[in-house]
Amino acid sequence: MIPLTTISVRSVVKGFVLFAMFVYIVFAFVIVKQTKIMTQTLEIGFENGIKIIAWMHFLFAIGLLFLSFVIL
Amino acid sequence: MPDIFISDNLNKNQDLEVEQINSPTPQPSKVQHLSEEFQEFSTNILSAFRLNPKKAKFINKGPDEKIILILRRHPFTNLGWIAITIAMLFGPAALVIFPILSFLPDNYQFVAVIGWYMITVAFAFENFISWFFNVNIITNERVVDVNFVNLIYRETSEAEVGQIQEAQVRVGSVRRTLFNYGDVAIQTASEKSGILFEAVPYPDRVTKILRDLRIAKGGI
């Protein structure tokens, strides 16, 4: 068991940041699902563009989590 | 034996009717007439008043159903979130003047700035798709109101054109009068409360289209 005195403030902050990033990934995934539902409900043009933006946002969110994991 | 009691005028009218029936060019329908009347309106996919969209579809659309008009909230209603988005884009630049993150190491500051831009993109995108997909559709058979209330909740109301009893226009503020947009409240014969088209452009023309459709359907 790791003694509490060895846990630095920085590692606690890093844990919080990574958790926030994870929550953000879930949010980005919900946006992807939401756009899917919307484009199934309505086909009024520009669906592919909207889907691409939603997926890009989701992938960037995952990338940011990895980046944070590496550089923090 | 010729029928001497039929007047000449009546015979002439009958001739005219026969000519109209045999005419090679069909008389334009009310829907075609609408299309011609509103030619000047944009058919751009981002238009808030999109007449006769070519490839538009929606859930539960009938095989013979034709979309006549797709309405969204007036673009002016997006001004608030666009202004907030622009302000958010300049947020990290403000850190130069107000270095509130200076107590953090550089790598944490970098991640914070990237995260801020991600949140900005998500905010703008959420608002955009909310505007883009919250539409009111008028077809030759019915009126449909599609509302995506939040991330996962969808609400669809519809009414047959023949059931429409009244379409009321509400234009109630200076900016609505200036930019010519307002609400169109549609009362139907059913027990449900009516359908509301919120902040749509050219509300008077929308009611005119609805009225013409009702006449074409024999609703009046």
Can you walk through the features of this model?
The complex is a heterodimer of chains A (72) and B (220). In chain A, helix 1 (9-41) packs antiparallel against helix 2. Chain A is mostly helical and 72 residues long. Chain A has one domain (4-71). Chain A has helices at residues 9-41, 47-71; one strand spanning 42-43. With 220 residues, chain B is of the alpha+beta class. Chain B has helices spanning 8-22, 30-37, 79-89, 91-97, 106-133, 174-179, 203-217; strands at residues 49-51, 57-58, 67-71, 136-139, 142-148, 154-160, 164-170, 181-188, 195-201. In chain B, helix 3 packs antiparallel against helix 5. In chain B, 22% of the residues are buried. The A-B interface holds A 13, 17, 20-21, 24, 27-28, 30-31, 33-35, 37-38, 40-46, 50, 53-54, 57, 60-61, 64, 67-68, 71-72 and B 45-46, 50, 53, 55-59, 70, 107-108, 110-111, 114-115, 118-119, 121-122, 125-126, 129, 132-133, 135, 146, 148, 151-152, 154, 156. Strand 1 (42-43) of chain A pairs antiparallel with strand 2 of chain B.
Summarize the structure.
Chain A is an all-alpha fold. Chain A has helices spanning about 10-40, 45-70, and one strand at about 40-45.
The percent range for strand residues of chain A is: under 5%
Whole-angstrom Rg of chain A: 18 Å
What is the approximate shape of chain A?
elongated
- Rounded to an integer in angstroms, the radius of gyration calculated over CA atoms of chain B is 26 Å
CATH class of the largest domain in chain B: Mainly Beta
Largest sheet of chain A: none
Helical stretch count of chain B?
A: 7
- Got a strand count of chain A? 1
Low-confidence runs of at least 5 consecutive residues of chain A: none
The tally of domains of chain A stands at: 1
Largest sheet of chain B: 5 strands, antiparallel
Strand content of chain B: 15-25%
Structural class of chain A: mainly alpha
Mean pLDDT across every amino acid position of chain A: 88
